[in-house]
Fold this protein.
Amino acid sequence: MSQDLAVSLREDAVGASTLRAPLRTAPADRRGRPEARPDLRVVARQQASARRAPFVVLVSILLTAGLLTLLMLNTVLAESSFQMHDLTARSVVLADQQEALERVLAVEASPARLAGRAEALGMVPGGSPAFLRLSDGRVLGVPSPAKARPVPAPSPAPGSTAAAAAPKPATARPTTKPAPKPRASAATVAR
């Protein structure tokens, strides 16, 4: 029995030492022949760090790539935030300018302001209007001419006569011609 438990140390041809158990006989099989068992060897333990190195490198690369991606994403979001702030500020300034221009336009478009500017250009208010009815060409109302206000005479230049420098006032003449009758178009003839 001591022979069965004994383990001998033997050197391989390569020079590595391995543990080898002696050959034991197995119980006989059904025919009475003993079965031979194969030689069993104790294999030296492999280095665990050799298998872990690629995994550690892969995890390090993934973590670095993830951190760089987060850094780029954060930078892009910060840049977009600054652009949005600038555009919001510009929008407020443009809204204020638009409001100021709308106020100026409202003042300039008022009837009193338009009448003053027309008078400064030499225009006069019109008289009573007349209307044309297109169905039969009849004139409705009695038109009256606009009455010009007297224009002050410009001051004469030295050495010229006042009569030659004064312009003659213009008067508007109403037309007394009847309005022409409208022509029949192809659409009205077909009706």
User: Anything to note?
Assistant: The mean pLDDT is 76. Helices lie at 2-5, 48-108, 111-120, 162-165, 186-190. DSSP finds five helices and seven strands in the chain.
